Amino acid sequence: MAYRIFIGPFVEMVTIPDLFVQTVWEGFVGGVLYALIALGFVLIFKASGVFNFAQGIMVVFAGLTLVGVYEKFAAFGFSGMLAAYAALVVALAVMFALAVAVERVVLRPLVNQPDIILFMATFGLTYLLIGLGETIFGGSPKVMIAAQLGLPSGSIDLAILGGRVSLQMLDIAAAVIAIVMIAVLAFFFQYTRIGRALRAVADSHKAALSVGISLNQIWIIVWFTAGIVALITGIMWGARSDVSFGLQTIALKALPVLILGGFTSVPGAIVGGLIIGIGEKIGEFYWGPLFGNGIESWLAYVIALAFLMFRPQGLFGDKIIERI
C-alpha cells in the first residue's frame, strides 16, 4: 500500500511521460479558469474589503443571461454570430445594471458597517440571483452558444516524449482568452488612474474620500469588472459542460485559490489557480483510484487547509501585525 501511495504514481509519471503532460495540460486549463474566477473575488475584496460570496452565482447568471437572450433573438428569426454578439452586448449591459443596483441598494446603505454585515448581504444577493435566474430562465441546463461566438471545436494531437498528447481546441481558446483577460486586468489596475484609485480605496476608504476619490464610482467599476469576469468565465465553463446552477459549485473552487494566493493579490490568484488546477488533476488521475476516485471535488480544499497551517496569509498576502 505504501508503494502505491508514495512511489507508484511517480514511477508512472516517469515511465509514461506523455500521459503526465496530458494531465498537466488539463490541469493548467482548469487552473487558468480558476484564476479568472478568483480575480473577481480579489477585485471586490480589494475595493470594499468584502468577500463577495455571490461571485459564483454571478458566473451562472451571466451565462444564463447570454444564452437566454440569444434564444429570444432566435425565436424572432435571428441567429448565428451576429445574434450571439448582440446577446453578448445585452449580457454586458445586464451585468452593468447589476453593478449599479448592488452599489445603490447594498453597498451605499451599508457603508462603514462591520465587514460581516456586508458579507451576509452578499449571501442575500446570491439567493436573490438564484431565484431571479430560475424565474426568468428556468432551472434546466442550457447549451452554451460556443460555436455562434466563434469558439473553435475539435482537437489537435501532438507527438511529445514518445507519445501523443491531445489538446482540445476549446481548451486552448479558453486558456488564451483567460490569460489575455488576466493580463489586461492586471495592467488596468496596476498602471491606470482607476487602478491607482482602487489601491487607494483598498488602503483606506477615509483617505481615498479625503483626496476626492468617489467610493460609489469605484464600487460600480469594480463590480462591473467582476461581472465581466463572471461572464467570460461562464462562457468558458459553459462551453465545456453546459450552463447550469451547478456551475456555482465550480466557482467556489476560487476559495482554495484565494487561500493559497492571498485575498488581495492578483499574482496570487494566478499562481494559486495554477497550483489548484494542476494539483487536483494530478491527484485525481494518479491517486484518485486509491480513494475510490472523485477526489477532484474535495482535494483543492484539503490542499488549502494544509497550506493554512504554514502560511495563513497566502503566498502573496500581507502579514497582519497587531501591536499591543
Automatic annotation (TrEMBL):
GO terms under biological process: amino acid transport
Residue ranges crossing the lipid bilayer per the database entry: 27-45, 50-70, 82-102, 114-137, 169-189, 218-238, 250-278, 290-310
Q: State the annotated membrane topology for this chain.
A: Multi-pass membrane protein
Query: Is-annotated flag, keyword Membrane?
Result: yes
What this protein is called in its record is Branched-chain amino acid ABC transporter permease
Question: Into which family does the record put it?
Answer: Belongs to the binding-protein-dependent transport system permease family. LivHM subfamily.
List the GO cellular component terms: plasma membrane
Tell me the GO molecular function terms.
transmembrane transporter activity
